[in-house]
Design a protein that fits this description.
Helices cover 0% and strands 48% of the residues. It has 124 residues and is mainly β.
Length: 124
């Protein structure tokens, strides 16, 4: 099982930036798909971005051009750089992992391991 711990959330005004981090357990091999999801109040959990073994990334349309997912395996850390934030980005953000070389899209049921989440609040 992969241990995942998010950090970096906070409150920011619209147009601002935040960088989320997700520390994963050192026993995690590089053969994992890693992803960020979010859940806004009253809404379903939504996949935001993913990165696979090969470094291939994928994004939900609403964040393309604004968010960047990356990982530093030497530091066992996944990142989500969020720029040009909008009030509709307000949500609890979670990192997730599954032991697959390629990411299985943004179906939350496909991901086995989850962090506790970090809150992002964007004010207008």
């Amino acid at each position: 099982q992969v241990q995942l711990v998010e950090s970096g959330g906070g409150s920011v005004q619209a147009g601002g930036s935040l960088r989320l981090s997700c520390a994963y357990s050192r026993y995690t091999t590089n053969n994992y798909c890693l992803a960020w999801f979010r859940r806004a109040p009253g809404k379903e959990r939504e996949g935001v971005a993913s990165i696979d073994l090969f470094g291939t990334t994928d994004y939900v349309d609403s964040v393309k051009g604004r968010f960047t997912i990356s990982k530093d395996h030497s530091k066992n850390t996944l990142f989500l750089q969020m720029n040009s934030l909008k009030p509709e980005d307000t949500a609890m953000y979670y990192c997730a992992a599954v032991g697959l070389h390629r990411c299985p899209g943004f179906s939350a049921d496909e991901y086995r391991d989850w962090g506790q989440g970090t809150q992002v609040t964007v004010s207008s």
